Prior knowledge:
With 461 residues, the chain is α+β, with helices and mostly antiparallel strands. It has helices at 2-14, 73-89, 105-115, 129-135, 154-159, 184-190, 200-213, 224-240, 256-271, 278-281, 293-296, 310-316, 355-367, 369-375, 385-393, 399-409, 423-437, 443-459, and strands at 53-54, 62-70, 93-100, 121-125, 171-172, 176-183, 218-221, 245-246, 251-252, 300-306, 322-324, 340-341, 344-348.
Amino acid sequence: xxxxxxxxxxxxxxxxxxxxxxxxxxxxxxxxxxxxxxxxxxxxxxxxxxxxxxxxxxxxxxxxxxxxxxxxxxxxxxxxxxxxxxxxxxxxxxxxxxxxxxxxxxxxxxxxxxxxxxxxxxxxxxxxxxxxxxxxxxxxxxxxxxxxxxxxxxxxxxxxxxxxxxxxxxxxxxxxxxxxxxxxxxxxxxxxxxxxxxxxxxxxxxxxxxxxxxxxxxxxxxxxxxxxxxxxxxxxxxxxxxxxxxxxxxxxxxxxxxxxxxxxxxxxxxxxxxxxxxxxxxxxxxxxxxxxxxxxxxxxxxxxxxxxxxxxxxxxxxxxxxxxxxxxxxxxxxxxxxxxxxxxxxxxxxxxxxxxxxxxxxxxxxxxxxxxxxxxxxxxxxxxxxxxxxxxxxxxxxxxxxxxxxxxxxxxxxxxxxxxxxxxxxxxxxxxxxxxxxxxxxxxxxxxxxxxxxxxxxxxx
Length: 461
């Protein structure tokens, strides 16, 4: 990944990003997790039509491909513009867009896979990628002639989209990572410095400091999904230096005592009012902090999320100064735990009737200057140095997004993937997180419940 990091450093210098890494992070080389989304406007809902073919003259076959994704208005508009540009270049190929909210997206895909009605091309949540590959619903892109991966850093796409197979089953849509987006204006007023490295206990100390300053303010805005990623998965990687689940052995790498330690931290984060009340934050899941009146009115010191959320959060409250804050580390950690990968993947359905045409579209999407200019940073920082250079030169690379990525890259870690991020394991962790944050379970009870449920799940794998 050295060549990729060197290219990224060049891009950062082009946008004149001030160095952030002196105060926090580690010096180890990071390995490029988390999805992010914006408030969406949904496409008109229609019953999906099957992929159709209308034969004309030889070499001019009329083809229709379906393409689905989630996101906000900016992402929709940019993606639709790329579709239009592609169809002008290839008039025999029609792309039917299907777009809307992230909420329920995976459930819809599961139904489509079971009924064999999935779209030809679709956006994929990062954590779902390995699971989809295991299910056999993703086409082996390495077997297709119509797409070229030369513009991608070889190691970056190896760890983002090959899922340990040696073949490319999905394409990373950008460079992203975890982020703590800080309202510096408020932090400075209270006397909190998130530009220096700190441990997990410091969060609670700062949370109490915020409450003493003003009981209507909170240090952290966090929802259940991001809380699981930020407080559970990251902490486990710091504790043990390995994923929560050993995919090969189908066993837990975590003990009940270790889970109790994590849930005790979460319990104290909420009881100390370091985190905003879980019940209050529930309507803003997943990744809807920009709709929260408390965020808009500057009542949080920081939002727990992903680098791809930066721009929309800043636009929700443009009246304050922002920075990308450091993230907590265990003093005796075995890994930094914070990882950098991609915000989403793009893939082709294994049952598509037109894999080469679908690959041709993705090649246009990722490898052309026209598409790079149209897409800008609507899916975070672009995944290739070629596209990063374009958005830096045309001014569309958001400075704070670049700073958040730089901050994230200052930490090393690894991507869990596999069973640890499977839908079943995620549901178990989210239910336990909610139970502790709502106060309906003690940390010990939640730990016991999680271990029992995860072991039951693993017994079926």
